[in-house]
């Protein structure tokens, strides 16, 4: 069947439509209607009015579909110039505005005009997107009083949620304008129309559309058999709650749903618009009855059918969403996933239960113990009325980050910048935990002054802001700073509450143009849902600022930084009022990859297919799809597979998501970049067991390096899924396809693991044996040949990992074909220098098969029985410069000093009495190859210090210990880097790996460490923070293949949170962890963190730390870290044709179902 049939007809949901998860998401923009007084009295002022409209339109985003515009002129009656859906480009709108002609007429009937707008312009047929939650704005410009009444039509527009701004001249009635707007500050007065430009800025500020000051409240009532007698009390409780709401003025909306085995909507959020209608409906409620009590199903129903724009929810407009659950029993089905889904939507849930309810279940549903309320009986509900009102009145929160240009160009203006930030902070609600603040300064690179979770009081924030010192530096890399914010500041570990739906605001103040590109990082912040306001001076690029904000009206300009107070009010209004589309966070998988979704489309998955499709959508939305980024393909199967699109069909995430809504996959022709080394991931979603054997094709895919992640339902075979998956841990399970969102985070975690494994492949070697074939080695040559044979036996040549070359020399060198057929060369004198030069020029080259340009280690094993006749100095030095690791084995006839000069490392020069003794150094040689090749050029050492209340007295000893460790490191020449992080409830970075470049700076910073304090001790969160924010390139961490990553944890207690997953994640990054604990620590926990019992050390007290100083130094110096797990062996190479057969074998073996 066709793709359309598959995605829309065959697998539509039970109600006959294909669910679109993005249908509730409105465009980020507004619908703006200009209502112009065209009566006789405005004839002379009309050209100015027209120019004013033009300038307003210039600030709107019409071309990208965000904003829509309509113009209506009126006198005794209204006349539409054009509707909201008449034009789609700014040029068309402006051309039409320029062509406006004065209407004329009298009297001035403003009431009739407002009524006309309600009935004919603010409607879907006229292009209004109000039903989708897009803000509606009306700008009225008038020069006189209305002849008819404006009360009723003005009220009607308010109920529609229209934001009205009225501008009047001296001939207008100020009270009338205030009645029309409903908000005195939105009624603006000018002496004459020629003064309209003076209110342009004020108008822009007001137009930062303010969400309604209200809430959407849904009551979910237990209507099962067990609540029959208590139902009247429940109904009375709802009535009293509704009495406290502001329904009539459109602020609050109400819905009531009753449930037992299934839910039944009494009325939706947009069913009624007056309190009287709502109360009448509530009074008429009849008990539903039924069993069992499926609270999980009811919560899921609310998510999909009630908290949606089509049902009246204003969640896209950031209107608070409140659910009040009243129940008298335990749920028969699971509430975990649907409760989590509502939290991700940002719904505040309050659960009230009786003695028959399960308190833990109620707390799980609310996610906040204080929101789970208990009463003995429903007749006691009035007792919690006040408590409920208190919880519901919690205002909106926000996380605000200031990004300040600290480059050389802003030195004189920096005090003004600092003052501006202070005044902005003064307007925020920090002390009660509503608002959080972070400040970052940048020039060439960014520097965090403090994170969102560093301070919890306004006083602390202000004190830190007052202490800001200008950073200095050049050039100005705004792009890098924005990228840094995305990766290190707008994150949960840094205090961002974005995953909880809290709006994220960035205020950028800059005095120049960015030296690097801002396009990609600005786009990434928009995708995170960050609202960006950019303020620039005359030295800034206005186009660049608009690109950063994505909304021209959020890009503000001042002549100098000292003029910042002029935009203070406008920024405050923007922060408070802007409609922010908050998207719940799902982990983003970083790293280029090819992903194929293989979907079970058999008869058994018909009901679950919409959920499967939605799941794919959500995963794709977190990918970075593009031509040189991530590639995606979807294959659906039942008896036979059908490809919906290949890896090279689409180049944007939007295209992929559109296709999902509506085999030759791992091959070059289909867009796979497997041969270029791009990780290949197959995500299998299946709802049953395979009819035939999956072992052989699954094994073949593993050998090709395809990472298979299997997700099955309760009807799948768990063992079969583990066989198919690349590793048993990559096999995930859900009860039903509708529970797929519950494994979204786990899938992202597995995918991240895959990227790490695929990005750092197993170590490869190019090994060259250089054998002394001069006359003096004739008798010892067979032993030499046997030694080479045994060495080759230890290498992985067959699977293409290792490559081998053998060269024999005396007076001159000769390259040999094979080892077993080696014949002694003979000749004299012994010119080792010439042989080494020959290797450099003819063997360690790409044309001879060397993979040195790809970073594969180059190893030379020299076996010689005498001194060189020529000089070895220059050619030995040349090989070192190429990065060749040389191991030299000589007999008693050799010169030990010469061998050491050749190797450059005394321990790599090995001596034997005679060639027959070569087997004695076999093990030594293997050890040198395995350790030296893994020896990094330096190390990145991070100290993680327990700064909780329990370590206050022992902290000086901890600090001294760190000092002594730093003393042993080589910081000044750039080999070693150091970072210190202190933690308790949350982590705080003292300095990053790239903060200091000298040992003196590091030691000075360590000496000034102050104890952090706080509780509980969340070691898991701290380890996760290190993974995401410290062991990263932006924080100074270097490639693990070249620089060893070490973590030294010192702790005095047990972790309050789980350490399993973050500890495992650090191991996957190749971090060597050494953990030191006191008697208050948990030794098993420390061993889990280190992954190696010998790296988990113990002292009685922190003052005993010097006892393990030497042990720690040895561990950091000597530990050999296996950075990357081994990839599967590749047997030969497959052509596209044979690979296609292999892939199809797996698909068919996986999918044939027994009928």
UniProtKB/TrEMBL annotation:
InterPro entries: Collagen-VI/PIF, VWF_A, vWFA_dom_sf. One of its GO terms (biological process) is cell adhesion. Pfam families: VWA. GO terms for molecular function: extracellular matrix structural constituent conferring tensile strength. Keywords: Cell adhesion, Collagen, Extracellular matrix, Repeat, Secreted, Signal. Gene3D superfamilies: von Willebrand factor, type A domain. The keyword Transcription regulation does not apply. It comes from the Eukaryota. The keyword Lipid metabolism does not apply. Its main location: secreted. GO terms for cellular component: collagen trimer. It is found in: Secreted, Extracellular space, Extracellular matrix. Residues 31-203, 216-388, 399-571, 594-747, 766-925, 940-1112 form the VWFA domain. SMART domains: VWA. This is VWFA domain-containing protein. The gene is COL6A3.
């Amino acid at each position: 069947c066709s793709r359309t049939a598959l995605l829309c007809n065959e697998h539509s949901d039970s109600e006959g439509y294909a669910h679109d998860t993005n249908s509730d998401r409105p465009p980020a923009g507004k619908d703006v209607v200009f209502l112009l007084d065209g009566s006789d009295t405005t004839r002379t002022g009309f050209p100015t009015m027209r120019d004013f409209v033009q300038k307003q339109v210039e600030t709107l985003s019409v071309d990208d579909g965000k904003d829509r515009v309509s113009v209506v002129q009126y006198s005794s009656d209204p006349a539409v110039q054009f509707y909201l859906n008449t034009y789609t480009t700014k040029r068309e709108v402006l051309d039409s505005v320029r062509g406006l002609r004065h209407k004329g007429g009298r009297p001035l009937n403003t009431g009739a005009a407002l009524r006309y707008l309600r009935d004919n312009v603010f409607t879907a047929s006229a292009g209004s997107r109000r039903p989708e939650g897009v803000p509606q704005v009306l700008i009225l410009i008038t020069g006189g009083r209305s002849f008819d009444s404006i009360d009723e039509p003005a009220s009607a527009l308010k109920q529609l949620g229209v934001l009205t701004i009225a501008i009047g001249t001296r001939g207008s009635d100020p009270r009338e304008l205030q009645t029309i707007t409903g908000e005195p500050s939105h009624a603006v007065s000018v002496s004459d129309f020629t003064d309209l430009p003076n209110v342009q800025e004020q108008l822009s500020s007001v137009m930062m559309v303010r969400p309604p000051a209200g809430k959407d409240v849904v009551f979910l009532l237990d209507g099962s058999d067990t609540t029959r007698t208590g139902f009247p009390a429940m109904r009375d409780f709802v009535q009293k709650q509704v009495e406290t709401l502001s329904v009539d003025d459109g602020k609050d909306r109400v819905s009531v749903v009753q449930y037992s085995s299934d839910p039944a909507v009494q009325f939706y959020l947009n069913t009624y618009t007056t309190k009287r209608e709502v109360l009448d409906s509530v009074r008429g409620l009849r008990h539903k009855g039924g069993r069992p009590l499926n609270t999980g199903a009811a919560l899921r129903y609310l998510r999909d059918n009630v908290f949606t724009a089509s049902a009246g929810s204003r969640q896209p407009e950031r209107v608070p969403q409140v659910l009040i659950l009243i129940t008298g029993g335990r749920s028969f089905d699971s509430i975990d996933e649907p409760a989590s889904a509502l939290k991700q939507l940002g719904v505040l849930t309050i659960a009230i239960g009786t003695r028959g309810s399960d308190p833990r279940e109620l707390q799980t549903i609310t996610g906040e113990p204080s929101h789970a309320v208990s009463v003995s009986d429903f007749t006691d509900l009035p007792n919690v009325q006040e408590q409920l009102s208190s919880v519901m009145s919690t205002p909106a929160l926000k996380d605000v980050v200031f990004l300040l240009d600290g480059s050389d160009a802003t030195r004189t203006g920096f005090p003004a910048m600092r003052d501006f930030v202070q005044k902005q902070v003064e307007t925020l609600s920090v002390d009660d935990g509503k608002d959080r603040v972070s400040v970052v300064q940048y020039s060439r690179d960014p520097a965090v002054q403090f994170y969102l979770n560093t301070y919890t009081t306004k006083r602390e924030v202000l004190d830190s802001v007052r202490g800001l010192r200008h950073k200095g530096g050049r050039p100005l890399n705004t792009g890098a700073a924005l990228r840094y914010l995305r990766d290190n500041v707008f994150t949960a570990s840094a205090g961002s509450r974005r995953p909880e739906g809290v709006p994220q605001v960035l205020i950028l103040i800059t005095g120049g143009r960015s030296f690097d590109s801002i396009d990609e990082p600005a786009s990434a912040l928009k995708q995170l849902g960050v609202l960006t306001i950019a303020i620039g001076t005359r030295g800034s690029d206005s186009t660049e600022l608009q690109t950063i904000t994505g909304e021209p009206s959020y890009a503000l300009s001042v002549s100098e930084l000292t003029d910042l107070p002029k935009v203070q009010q406008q920024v405050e209004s923007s922060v408070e009022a802007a409609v922010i589309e908050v998207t719940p966070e799902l982990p983003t998988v970083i790293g280029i990859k090819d992903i194929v979704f293989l979907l079970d489309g058999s008869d058994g998955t018909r009901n679950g297919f919409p959920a499967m499709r939605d799941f794919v959508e959500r995963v794709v939305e977190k990918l970075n799809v593009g031509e040189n980024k991530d590639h995606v393909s979807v294959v659906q199967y039942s008896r036979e597979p059908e490809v919906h699109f290949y890896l090279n069909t689409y180049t944007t995430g939007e295209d992929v998501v559109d296709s999902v809504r509506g085999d030759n996959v791992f091959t070059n022709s289909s867009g796979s970049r497997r041969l270029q080394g791009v990780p290949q991931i197959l995500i299998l979603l299946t709802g049953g067991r395979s009819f035939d054997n999956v072992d052989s094709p699954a094994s073949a895919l593993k050998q090709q390096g395809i990472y298979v992640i299997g997700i099955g339902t309760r009807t799948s075979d768990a063992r079969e899924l583990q066989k198919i998956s690349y590793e048993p841990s990559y096999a995930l399970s859900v009860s039903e396809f509708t529970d797929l969102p519950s494994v979204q985070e786990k899938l992202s975690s597995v995918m991240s693991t895959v990227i790490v494994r695929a990005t750092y492949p197993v170590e490869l070697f190019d090994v060259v044996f250089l054998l002394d074939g001069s006359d003096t080695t004739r008798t010892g040559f067979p032993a030499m040949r046997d030694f080479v044979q045994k060495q080759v036996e230890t290498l992985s040549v067959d699977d293409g990992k290792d490559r081998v070359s053998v060269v024999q020399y005396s007076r001159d060198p000769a390259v040999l074909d094979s080892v077993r057929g080696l014949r002694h060369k003979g000749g004299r004198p012994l010119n080792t220098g010439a042989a080494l030069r020959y290797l450099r020029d003819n063997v360690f080259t790409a044309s001879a098969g060397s993979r040195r340009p790809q970073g594969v280690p180059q190893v030379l094993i020299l076996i010689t029985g005498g001194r060189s006749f020529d000089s070895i100095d220059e050619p030995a030095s040349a090989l070192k410069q190429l990065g060749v690791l040389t191991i030299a084995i000589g007999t008693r006839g050799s010169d030990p000093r010469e061998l050491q000069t050749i190797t450059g490392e005394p321990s790599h020069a090995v001596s034997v009495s005679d060639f027959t003794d070569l087997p004695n150094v076999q093990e030594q040689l293997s050890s040198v190859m395995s350790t030296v090749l893994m020896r990094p050029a330096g190390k990145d050492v991070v100290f993680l210090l327990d700064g909780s209340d329990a370590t206050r007295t022992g902290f000086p000893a901890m600090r001294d210990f760190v000092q002594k460790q730093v003393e042993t490191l080589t910081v000044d020449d750039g080999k070693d880097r150091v970072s210190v992080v202190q933690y308790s409830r949350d982590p705080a970075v003292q300095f990053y790996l790239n903060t200091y470049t000298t040992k003196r700076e590091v030691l000075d910073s360590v000496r000034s460490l102050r104890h952090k304090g706080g509780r509980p001790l969340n070691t898991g969160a701290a380890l996760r923070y290190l993974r995401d924010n410290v062991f990263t390139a932006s924080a100074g961490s270097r490639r693990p293949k070249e620089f060893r990553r070490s973590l030294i944890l010192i702790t005095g207690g047990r972790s309050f949170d789980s350490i399993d997953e973050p500890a495992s994640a650090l191991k996957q990054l190749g971090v060597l962890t050494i953990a030191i604990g006191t008697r208050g620590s948990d030794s098993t926990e420390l061993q889990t963190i280190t992954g190696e019992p010998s790296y988990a050390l113990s002292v009685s007290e922190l003052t005993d730390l010097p006892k393990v100083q030497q042990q720690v130094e040895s561990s950091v110096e000597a530990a050999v870290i296996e950075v990357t797990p081994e990839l599967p062996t590749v047997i030969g190479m497959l052509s596209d044709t044979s690979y296609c057969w292999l892939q199809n074998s797996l698909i068919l073996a996986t999918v044939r179902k027994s009928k």
